[in-house]
Amino acid sequence: MKKLITKIFKNCGIGTSHVINKDGITCIKRYGFWTPYLTIFISKIYPITHLHKISQVYHSHQGSFLSFILKGAYLQDVLEVNKVFRTSHKWFNYLPCGWHHKITCYKPVYLPSCFVVFNYHSM
Q: Smaller CB count within 10 Å for the chain: N or C?
């Protein structure tokens, strides 16, 4: 039983997981919990493009991503086979695992977000 409990809670955590760029600028403040299969954060995305004249880099996530925007809005650029698709998000966003994207906002955005990893052991 002890072995099972240890396996279930291995690599789990609760607390902060902020995103800070190489210049020390906070891009996203996040609070929540994470496991190898599910992560849920309450996040504040900062308008770094507007404030610091820098932008995010294209990145992907290890799991599918779902967010419900509580306050604010953002633009999302998705890179797909050398083409960029821009979408606007004010209420909801879903991004499948492995898609490369970057976001831009002009005011802070507040949202709960969820990452789901369906095939953790193959990563």
A: N
Residue at 20 is within a domain: yes
Residue type, 34: W
DSSP 46: -
Structural domain containing residue 58: 2-118
Domain assignment of residue 41, yes or no: yes
Q: What is the CATH number of the domain that holds 77?
A: 2.60.120.10
- Nearest-angstrom CA–CA distance, 36 and 101: 22
Neighbours of 93 (CB within 10 A): 19
Rounded distance between C-alpha atoms, residue 19 and residue 15, angstroms: 13
What pLDDT, on a 0 to 100 scale, did the predictor assign at position 5? 66
Counting as low any pLDDT under 70, the low residues of the chain are 5, 8, 118-123
Burial of residue 49 (number of CB atoms within 10 Å: 0-12, 13-18, 19+): middle
